[in-house]
Specification:
It is a single chain. Helix content is 3%, strand content 55%. By secondary structure, the protein is an all-beta fold. The longest helix has 6 residues. 44% of the residues are buried. A hairpin with a 2-residue loop joins strand 19 and strand 20.
Length: 681
C-alpha cells in the first residue's frame, strides 16, 4: 500500500456549560489501564454538538469510523472491521442482526444517550461474546442521574433544526421521585429530515425520514446496595424514501418513493447488588430486543440475470406488504467476589436470536409469456441461534505489575433451518506495569471466537439450507499500550498521552450479507494498526488530539488482497474553551489521508485481476457554542456549524468510496448550520 497526505488540519472540540472545572467531565477520550482500551463520549457533549446520528456520536473516537451520511444507512467500523465483529449493546442489551445489507444495523435515537463507551481489542472476557474487535456500549439516561439531591420532580424540553438536511426535532422528558426509593423517567422525541444539501451537487430528495422514539425507565432502590431498573425503549425510523440507505440518492423523482421503516423495541430488567459483602457485587440483566423492517407493497419489473450475468426484464412482479424481524432474548449474570486478596469476576451470558418474515399476501410473478407463479414470502420457522457462555477473570498484583487472566467458554448453536454447533474455550490475558508514577505499560492477548451469525433477514426464505463447510470465526489478538501522565511535566491540571499498537487475525471471517448458506465469501483476515493521542484539561481550556491507522489483508486461499476498509491515516483534534459561567466554545476537526490500495479478485469470467483503488483525503472543520444565561435559569441555547468550509468529501468506509468509486456514492453533508434551544424546569 502507498499513502499520500492531502492536508494539514487543526481542530478543536469538547465541553460543557457551567463552571470551568466541569469541563473535565466532557473529555472524549478516557484511557483506562485496568480495563480494555476505552473511550467515552458524554451525553452532554452530544447535546452541545447537536448530534442526531451515530456518526456524530462516534466520529472523534480513535479507531472507530462510521460510514455513510444518512442515518438509516450508517454502519460502524472498529479498527477497520464492520460492527458484526464487535459486541454492540444498549443498556447491556445485545443489538445483533442485519435486516438489509444496504441499510444500517443499529436503530437508535441519540437523544436518549447518557454516554457512549468504546472498548477496543479482544483481551478481556468481560467485553462479551463476539467482541472480536471490541465493544460499543450505549447507555441511556436515568432519572437518578438527572435529578438533583433536593429535587422531587423536574423535566426538560428542547427544539432543534438545521439548514442542510431540513432537520427539525422536538424532545420532552419528565423525571421525578415518587418516594425515597422509587424514581421514574419518561422521554419522547420526534424529528424529521428532508432534502440533503451536499457540496457540488443538487440536493438529495429521496432520503426523507421521520423518527419517533420513547424511553421509560423506572428505578427502585431496594436499599443502599440494591437497585432494580425497568427499561422500556421504542424507536421508529421510517419514511417514503430510498430503500437502500447507503446507496447514492436522487436529485429528481418521477414519483414518490415507497415507504420503508426500521424499528426497535427493547425491554430489560436490571438488578444490581453493590453489597459491602466482599463476596457480592452482582449484576443481572434480563432482556428482549426486537428489530424490524417494514416494506410497503409494490408492483414493478421482474428483473432476472441472464447467462452472462446481465440483468434482463421478464414481465412484472407484485410484492405484498411485509415485515422482517430479528428478535433476541437474553440473560446476563455477573458477580465479583474478593477472596484472599484476589478479585474474581465470573458470570454467564446467554441469548437466543430468532428471525421471521410476516407477509400480508402472496408474491405474484407474471412473466412476459403470460405465465403466473406465486410464492409465500412469510417465514415462520426461520433461522435461530443460541448461546450459552461462562467466564471467569481474576486480578492480582505482583510488585508494580497487575495481572488480569481470564477464560471464556462459549457454546453456540444454530437451529431452525440450520443444524450446527460450535464450542470453544477462549483464554485472555492482560499485564499492566506501573513503570513509574506517571508511566503505565500494558500488554494484552486474547483468543478470538465467534460462531457464524444469522444471515440478513431480507434474504431468508423457506428453502434455504446450510453449506457443508461452515466454520466459526477464530483468531488471536495481541496489543501493547502505553499511557503517560504528563500533568506534572507540563504543569497542567490534567494531561496524558497514549499509544496502542495491535495485531489481530480472524480466520473464516463471516459477514451476513446474502449469506443464507453461512459459508459465502469466507476469508482469513490479518489487521495491524496503531492509535495514539494526547488530551489535557487546564482551568478553562481542554483539548485532545487522536490519531489512528490500520493496515489490513484478506486471504482467500487462492489469492490475497488488501482489505479495502483499511489504509486511512486519521487525525481528530479538538479544543473547548469555557469563556465564562454562561459561554462555552468548541472547535473540532478531522483530517484523513489519501489512500492507495490494490483490489485483487476473481471476475465473472473466472479471471484473477487486480484493480488500483484510490481514495481522496479530506479535512473537515466544525465549530459550536453554548450559552446558558444566568438571568433565565434552565435555559440553554446551542449553535453549531458542521463542515464550516462546505468541503466536498466522502468517508472512506462509505458505500462506493470504500472501493474507490466516488461516482457510486454521495458527498457528505455540506455546510450545516444547527440551532437548538432547551429548557430545564
Amino acid at each position: 500500500m502507498k499513502f499520500k497526505y492531502s492536508a494539514i488540519v487543526i481542530a478543536f472540540l469538547s465541553a460543557k456549560s457551567a463552571v470551568a472545572n466541569e469541563v473535565t467531565e466532557l473529555e472524549l477520550t478516557k484511557v483506562k489501564t485496568d480495563k480494555e482500551i476505552a473511550s467515552e463520549v458524554a451525553g452532554k457533549e452530544l447535546e452541545l454538538k447537536q448530534v442526531n446520528d451515530l456518526k456524530g456520536a462516534l466520529n472523534v473516537v480513535a479507531g472507530v469510523s462510521v460510514g455513510n451520511s444518512t442515518r438509516y444507512g450508517q454502519k460502524t467500523y472498529l479498527r477497520g472491521v464492520e460492527e458484526h465483529s464487535a459486541n454492540i449493546t444498549i443498556d447491556g442489551v445485545r443489538q445483533d442482526g442485519q435486516l438489509f445489507h444496504h441499510s444500517g444495523n443499529q436503530v437508535v435515537d441519540t437523544s436518549m444517550f447518557k454516554a457512549v463507551s468504546v472498548e477496543l481489542g479482544a483481551t478481556s472476557v468481560l467485553s462479551g461474546y463476539g467482541a472480536n474487535t471490541g465493544a460499543i456500549s450505549y447507555q441511556t439516561k436515568d432519572p437518578t442521574d438527572l435529578l438533583a439531591a433536593n429535587e422531587a420532580f423536574a423535566g426538560s424540553t428542547s427544539i432543534g433544526m438545521d439548514s442542510a438536511t431540513e432537520f427539525k426535532q422536538f424532545n420532552f422528558s419528565v423525571y421525578g421521585r415518587v418516594n425515597q426509593q422509587f424514581s421514574l423517567l419518561a422521554m419522547l422525541t420526534a424529528n424529521q429530515s428532508g432534502d440533503i444539501k451536499t457540496p457540488n451537487a443538487d440536493p438529495i430528495v429521496n432520503k426523507h425520514s421521520e423518527l419517533k422514539s420513547g424511553l421509560v425507565k423506572a428505578v427502585y432502590d431496594i436499599d443502599s446496595a440494591q437497585k432494580l431498573t425497568l427499561n422500556i425503549q421504542s424507536v421508529e425510523d421510517g419514511g417514503n424514501r430510498a430503500f437502500s440507505g447507503e446507496k447514492p440518492g436522487m436529485s429528481e423523482l418521477e414519483k414518490e418513493e415507497l415507504y420503508n421503516g426500521h424499528n426497535r423495541d427493547t425491554y430489560s430488567m436490571v438488578y444490581i447488588n453493590d453489597s459491602i459483602d466482599p463476596l457480592i457485587d452482582l449484576y443481572v440483566n434480563v432482556y428482549l430486543n426486537e428489530k424490524s423492517m417494514n416494506r410497503e407493497q409494490s408492483t414493478g419489473k421482474n428483473e432476472v440475470r441472464d447467462a452472462k450475468g446481465q440483468w434482463q426484464v421478464d414481465g412484472t412482479i407484485f410484492y405484498p406488504e411485509r415485515d422482517y424481524f430479528y428478535k433476541t432474548t437474553g440473560l446476563d449474570i455477573r458477580n465479583t467476589s474478593h477472596i484472599n486478596g484476589l478479585a474474581w469476576t465470573y458470570g454467564i451470558e446467554s441469548f437466543k436470536s430468532e428471525q421471521r418474515i410476516e407477509a400480508a399476501a402472496l408474491q405474484k410473478t407474471t412473466k412476459a409469456n403470460g405465465d403466473v407463479t406465486t410464492r409465500d414470502m412469510s417465514v415462520n420457522n426461520g433461522p435461530n441461534a443460541r448461546l450459552m457462555s461462562a467466564y471467569v477473570q481474576t486480578e492480582f498484583g505482583v510488585g508494580g505489575v497487575t495481572f488480569i487472566p481470564g477464560v471464556r467458554y462459549d457454546s453456540y448453536k444454530l437451529g431452525g433451518v440450520y443444524d450446527l454447533s460450535f464450542n470453544e474455550f477462549s483464554p485472555k490475558f492482560t499485564a499492566a506495569w506501573q513503570a513509574s508514577r506517571d508511566l503505565n505499560l500494558r500488554l494484552g492477548y486474547g483468543k478470538i471466537f465467534k460462531g457464524p451469525g444469522l444471515p440478513e433477514v431480507l434474504m431468508i426464505n423457506n428453502t434455504i439450507s446450510q453449506a457443508d463447510n461452515v466454520e466459526a470465526e477464530k483468531g488471536a489478538h495481541l496489543e501493547f499500550d502505553i499511557n503517560y501522565d504528563l500533568s506534572n511535566i507540563l504543569g497542567l491540571q490534567s494531561a496524558a498521552a497514549y499509544a496502542n499498537v495491535y495485531q489481530f487475525t480472524i480466520d473464516d471471517s463471516f459477514h451476513p450479507t446474502k449469506n443464507t448458506s453461512l459459508a459465502n465469501g469466507r476469508f482469513d483476515m490479518k489487521n495491524n494498526g496503531v492509535e495514539a493521542g494526547f488530551r489535557f484539561n487546564h482551568q478553562q481550556l481542554s483539548g485532545y488530539i487522536n490519531y489512528s491507522y490500520n493496515d489490513g489483508e484478506r486471504d482467500y486461499n487462492e489469492y490475497k488482497t488488501d482489505d479495502l476498509y483499511s489504509g486511512s491515516h486519521e487525525v481528530n483534534v479538538g479544543l473547548t474553551y469555557q469563556a465564562s459561567d454562561e459561554w462555552v466554545f468548541g472547535w473540532y476537526n478531522t483530517l484523513v489521508s489519501n489512500v492507495s490500495l490494490s483490489d485483487t479478485y476473481v471476475n465473472r469470467q473466472g479471471e484473477l485481476v487486480s484493480d488500483p483503488i484510490e481514495k481522496v483525503g479530506y479535512g473537515v472543520a466544525n465549530i459550536w457554542l453554548s450559552f446558558e444565561p444566568k438571568a433565565v435559569a434552565g435555559l440553554r441555547v446551542n449553535l453549531a456549524v458542521d463542515n464550516v468550509f462546505d468541503k466536498a468529501y466522502q468517508n472512506h468506509k462509505s458505500f462506493g468510496m470504500y472501493w474507490g468509486n466516488a461516482e457510486y456514492n454521495d458527498n457528505e453533508v455540506g455546510r450545516n448550520i444547527k440551532a437548538a434551544v432547551s429548557y430545564n424546569f
